[in-house]
Design goal:
eight-stranded mixed β-sheet; disordered N terminus; 16 helices; alpha+beta; binds magnesium ion; 18% strand; binds adenosine-5'-triphosphate
């Protein structure tokens, strides 16, 4: 008889243990990963605090161009050189720059840039070199390489973060005064400078500045190298003399090509069309003027007394309203009225072009080619900011394909903004986009879809503006404003048309030469055939063939 299976009696403790999932390693791990208790407004509040600008950029150093050691070295040199050139031009001094890179270890360098500019007032040095967003160029609309007030302090901060070394500055503002030596470093938590050395010192120039930054970097040759940046800077700034001492001990001297300073372009006030609501409100609140009509007339360009009245009427605001009391609602009305009123385009004498001729000379100094052309557009406006585009093109560059005779090289694009070369982020730049979108096949060169054209050529494009709209704080690529893209394309197309005409002519010449060679080869046979068919005498054959030869010479157009 089969035994009836009786369920085993279990104690309540064992039952509970069995119903509980077994404590395996997996469950333990799962429990450890269990979500944290949900945050409450209060627990979140405990963590909410303001972030200093320098803390932000220390974490996001790629936004400032310090994403890898090679680029970091270039960015540091670029920030110091751009500042030196800006300062010299502003003080109307022909710039003489000494750029030195010294290797301390394989991945540690000092960058030293010395200029003969106006120098920097003692009190300002700590803030300029160890405080982000401190500068003289942000609050104005004037052509310059610097704009944001971040550049040199960011380079100093990168140096401090990677090597712990402060920035060293020597500056002298007058030949009758001693120079001042400072060692400063940024306190990132507070975005304020800490000064470790502040003393008088000797300086070989009557006025000028020397900045030394120690940083982790990589010094490498190539298209995006410091060497290339210095070469392109010399090309776009023929009025500057630059001595470059490389980390490998080599010295390159770029002598001054132009004995005069370029015109600097006038500072302008913002044009009402380019001002957004928030900025309009801030400008009104910051204005020292007492009446709305005066604010419109004096703090903006191209607004006459009559126009100011019309704008106020359209906005249904009193011309006597105090700008500092403007409400958001009133600012909205004012903003709308501005955009409904026809205002003359901004003055464009605030931009100084390099000039087509100078640009072409600059290109000639760097690349040897068979054909050069250049063009300079007249000024145009984007978002109320005047700008101007210039381009120069060289074709038939020797050894433009890196030594490979089989491979057709891709065009070399040199991008410049306010005389400062841009070496990174090419494909994100409006200049690249515009050049790629031009149909180069119209100009007798080949081009793969969505790429730069092919051929032994170099194209240099300069954008000059009172405010260059960069895509990020590292100032590497120009933003894609339709007005800017259009102007670049027009300039590039102009160079392209001239290149097309040159290449077509060159082709015609080649074909004609080929035909002539052909005829010349067959002339003796024609003589023989004529002798056979017409039974000509030998001296008649010579006569006929020499006549044909003469005719060939007479019709030679090249
Ligand atoms: N070599 C120099 N000679 C004289 N003044 C200088 C020099 N370097 C910097 N300055 C001053 O210091 C300021 C700050 O320089 P910084 O590079 O930080 O900002 P910027 O040049 O104004 O803008 P950006 O961030 O776009 O470079 C400049 O605006 C300029 O007034
Ligand atoms: Mg700068």
């Amino acid at each position: 008889m089969a035994k009836k299976l009786k369920p085993k009696k279990r104690s309540s403790k064992t039952a509970a243990r069995l119903t509980r999932p077994k404590r395996t390693k997996k469950t333990v791990r799962r429990r450890e990963r269990a979500p944290e208790p949900a945050a409450t407004a209060e627990s979140m509040a405990a963590q909410q605090r303001s972030i200093s600008i320098s803390e932000f950029f220390a974490k996001n150093r790629h936004l400032l161009g310090f994403d890898n050691p090679r680029k970091a070295l270039l960015t540091a040199v670029k920030e110091a050189v751009d500042n030196s050139l800006d300062a010299c031009e502003e003080a109307r001094i022909l710039p003489d720059l000494l750029v030195e890179i010294t290797a301390l270890q394989q991945d540690k360098f000092t960058v030293t840039v010395t200029d003969n500019g106006p120098g920097i007032v003692r009190k300002q040095i700590p803030n300029i070199f160890a405080r982000l967003l401190y500068g003289s160029k942000f609050h104005r609309l004037k052509m310059s390489r610097g704009q944001q007030g971040i550049g040199i302090s960011a380079a100093g901060m990168y140096g401090l973060l990677t090597t712990g070394q402060p920035v060293e500055i020597v500056s002298r503002t007058s030949s009758s005064k001693k120079a001042q030596l400072y060692h400063v470093q940024i306190d990132t938590a507070k975005n304020k400078p800490r000064i470790s050395v502040d003393q008088e010192c000797d300086f070989e120039l009557p006025t000028g500045t020397r900045v030394t930054i120690t940083l982790k970097g990589k010094h490498q040759k190539g298209r995006q190298s410091v060497d290339e940046y210095i070469a392109q800077t010399a090309m776009a700034n023929p009025h500057a003399g630059i001595v470059y001492k490389s980390s490998n001990g080599a010295t390159v001297e770029y002598q001054r090509q132009a004995k005069e300073l370029p015109p600097t372009g006038r500072q302008i006030r913002p044009h009402p069309y380019g001002v957004e609501l928030g900025l309009l409100l801030r400008m009104a609140h910051d204005s020292r003027l007492k009446q709305l009509s005066a604010f419109l007339r004096k703090d903006f360009s191209r607004v006459s007394a009559r126009l100011a009245r019309t704008i106020c009427q359209k906005a249904k605001l009193s011309i006597r309203l105090k700008p500092s009391k403007l409400t958001v609602h009133q600012a909205e009305a004012l903003h709308a009225a501005i955009n409904k009123t026809k205002i003359m385009a901004p003055a464009t004498d605030c931009i100084a072009a390099i000039g087509a001729e100078r640009l072409e000379e600059g290109l000639k100094a760097v690349v040897k080619a068979d054909f050069y052309t250049a063009t300079s557009r007249s000024p145009s406006v984007y978002s109320g900011n005047p700008f101007l585009i210039e381009a120069a093109l060289a074709y038939g560059i020797k050894d433009g394909n890196g030594g490979d005779p089989e491979r057709e090289p891709v065009m070399r694009l040199i991008r410049i903004a306010n005389r400062a070369p841009l070496l990174y982020q090419q494909s994100a730049c409006a200049i690249y986009r515009s050049v790629v979108d031009v149909n180069w096949r119209n100009y007798s060169v080949t081009q793969n879809r969505g790429s730069l054209p092919n051929g032994p050529m170099a194209l240099m494009v300069n954008m000059a503006s009172v405010w260059v709209p960069f895509t990020s704080e590292s100032k590497e690529a120009i933003a894609h404003y339709p007005e800017i893209i259009r102007e670049i394309q027009l300039a590039v197309q102009d160079c392209g048309r001239k290149l097309g005409a040159y290449l077509r002519r060159k082709k015609r010449v080649q074909q004609e030469m080929e035909k002539r060679r052909y005829i010349e080869t067959y002339l003796p046979y024609i003589g023989e055939a004529l002798q056979d068919i017409l039974s000509l005498k030998q001296h008649d054959v010579i006569l006929v063939t020499s006549r044909l030869q003469e005719l060939l010479e007479k019709t030679r157009r090249i």
